[in-house]
Each structure stands twice: as structure tokens, then as C-alpha cells.
Design brief:
alpha+beta; single chain
Length: 106
């Protein structure tokens, strides 16, 4: 390694954490986030499922009276995300035997 010349300053690039993360993420990584829209029947249980999914590290957004759009916050891959969401839904349905959850779009 060579020594710095006297009087010459070393350049330090300052980059925000957000910009650094954006630079590291490839295009393929950005496309793997799984978003699933669910329809809950009866519609009165939509908010209960929404709160359960939010407590399970999911982002849930209400759509209409009986639908939720769900995103897994700690996305690993589309396959993993779908399996995790399916597990969360099955877990919730185990304590809500009268409810039906249908995947409307994915």
C-alpha cells in the first residue's frame, strides 16, 4: 500500500443508509415482494384478520368491506412469502372455524 502524499486529502464519500440500501438491491430483489389480496367471509371478521396479520409482521391494507391486501414485511422470496402468509392464515382460521378466506389476486 502506498503512502499518501503530504497535503493531499483523502476523499470520503458520505451516503445515506437509504441510498446505500437502494444501490445494493437488484431489480430481481425488488420484484420478489409478494402482495396478496384476500376476501374474508363473514366481512365482520376482516378487521380481526387484519390485526392478526399485522401482529405477524405483515402490512395489511383494507380494500372495500371484506378485502385485505397483505404484504410480508421481511420478504425473503416470493415462494417463502406465500408459504408464510398461508401459514398465518391457517393459524388464524384455526381459531375462527366459521370464517372463510379466499385469495382474490396475487
Amino acid at each position: 500500500m502506498r503512502a499518501r502524499e503530504p497535503g493531499r486529502r483523502r476523499m470520503v464519500m458520505k451516503l445515506s443508509l437509504v441510498k446505500a440500501i437502494r444501490l445494493r438491491a437488484s431489480r430481481a430483489d425488488r420484484r420478489t415482494v409478494a402482495a396478496v389480496r384476500l376476501r374474508v367471509d363473514p366481512a365482520e371478521l376482516r378487521d380481526d384478520l387484519l390485526e392478526f396479520l399485522r401482529a405477524s409482521s405483515c402490512l395489511g391494507v383494507k380494500h372495500g368491506l371484506s378485502e385485505i391486501e397483505v404484504h410480508l414485511l421481511n420478504s425473503v422470496s416470493e415462494r417463502h412469502d406465500r408459504a408464510a402468509l398461508a401459514g398465518y392464515i391457517e393459524s388464524w382460521k384455526a381459531s375462527h372455524s366459521d370464517a372463510a378466506v379466499e385469495i382474490v389476486s396475487s
